[in-house]
Design a protein that fits this description.
- The chain is α/β, with parallel strands linked by helices.
- It has three domains: 49-266 and 302-323, Rossmann fold (3-Layer(aba) Sandwich), CATH 3.40.50; 329-425, Helicase, Ruva Protein, domain 3 (Orthogonal Bundle); 429-527, no CATH class.
- The protein contains 28 helices and eleven strands.
- It has helices at residues 3-8, 13-23, 45-57, 59-62, 68-76, 83-105, 129-140, 164-172, 177-180, 205-219, 231-242, 268-279, 284-289, 293-298, 302-308, 312-316, 329-338, 343-352, 362-375, 380-396, 409-413, 415-425, 427-449, 457-470, 474-481, 485-496, 505-509, 511-527; strands spanning 119-122, 144-148, 184-188, 222-224, 251-253, 258-263, 320-323, 357-360, 404-407, 452-455, 500-503.
- The strands form four sheets. The chain has a five-stranded parallel beta sheet with strand order 2-3-6-1-7, sandwiched between helices.
- Helix 18 (343-352) runs parallel beside helix 20 (380-396) and helix 26 packs parallel to helix 28 (511-527).
Length: 528
Amino acid sequence: MTETQSSDKTPSLEEQLRDMLRKANLSFVTNPSATPPEPEAPAGHDADVAEDEGADALAAIREFDRKPRDIREYLDRFVIRQDAAKKVLSVAICDHYNHVRRCLEDPETQDREYAKHNILFVGPTGVGKTYMMRCAAKLIGVPFVKADATKFSETGYVGHDVEDLVRDLVKAADGNVDLAQYGIIFLDEIDKIAAQTTGGGGKDVSGRGVQVNLLKLMEETDVSLFSQTDLIGQMQAVMDMQRGRGEGRRTINTRHILFIVSGAFDRLGEQVKRRISQRAIGFAESDTDAMTESDLLRRAATRDFIDYGFEAEFVGRIPVRVVFDPLTAEDLEDILLNSEGSLLRQYREDFEGYSVGVTFARGAVRAIAALAHEERTGARGLMTVLERLLRDFKFELPSTPIRKLEITEHAVKDPEDALGKVLTMKESARRDLLQAELDQFIEDFRAAHQLKLTFAREAAAALFDRCVDEDYSVQGWIEKHFKDIEYGLNLIARNTGRKQFTITRKFVDDPSGELSSRIAASFKQAKD
């Protein structure tokens, strides 16, 4: 083959790997016997270890014996309300993993036709959809992956390929394919890929196309563990094969992966209302006007989802549908007080990191919940309110001697005023803290330069005033204003032999000028 002919041919995978290894100063070994020997192990040792690890990972699934009520009671610890959703989800999970357990016990069961309990969550943001599934996956002991549907495209050339979801599940299982094939994939914002007719009358590629590709995953298909662009993964597989570890598994089957899709479906309630109203006779139309958004969503039929923009086959593969209720202010208060994942606990731990104990009065909790409800983002509004409320307290208190803080209803309504009062009441204690910081600076300076500093009383008082006015620590203020103090005092020490220096009020008022005067005096003294 001539050089011209060779250049026209697309390099094979092996040739690409050879080139990558050459650039990395590595050799491409074609003879496994030429590979440097690894520590000896009994024949089949790696395979036995892998099998044991796989068996241990699947132990929780093989021994799955939970009842729907067990699942519900566990979720009650973390997610407030949503009782109907918990009940439906608990039954679906138990049915699915009981079937998986039977398949592991009797491989012939896998050949039987089985309709998987894929789930559709419908409800506003921040009501606990993702959190509920994450908690359930943790309880069962299976890997969990969450992604937004909007990041995927039909072809994968723009955006991500839907098969990446399955590969991410393998990563979440630490590479254990046997465990990953029984995991849970949660796809949020599914309503955003509802196919809409474009202005030109064509199909919405990013909507319908992604649905079709997801449909393949939800039914059953084999997904390659390495994407076409994952040359590193392919290279690793080739290198493992050359080391005598065998080719290993190259695909994962999605038959037993549980898919949960979720969305707010903002327009669906109005769509259901129009459908019901069109069929209404007489006074029945007024009944729809009295329905809440959640009531309307619970009346949604398969036809409504198809009209919304979903393929009939796609909706048919999601037989379990759960509607989540919006959270009230009372629900948000309950979350703060009773959920094991309460943000109040997180913020207490944040303050404890600064040795500050914080408590929340009941009236403050109620006020926080009311403000969060006004955010209209569900439980996510709690983080918004708490961060806005406590950020200045977090910034100020660690630099003060204050070690206890109570958040009252007044603090929630006017955090700036509440913080000011806390700092004012502790002003004398803050001076004590600044004195301690100054003593520490003097000690560190002596250890680093073998020079002893003494601050005159007037100088220390002026220094503390400036630290308070400029909102600085002693160390920070000195580093900013006494920039050349180490060089200057060391120079004076060499000229005069002095090892002790008194910092006067004049030094604090004019650090640069006073230091220059002292240096000049030291040179004059040395000359004399």
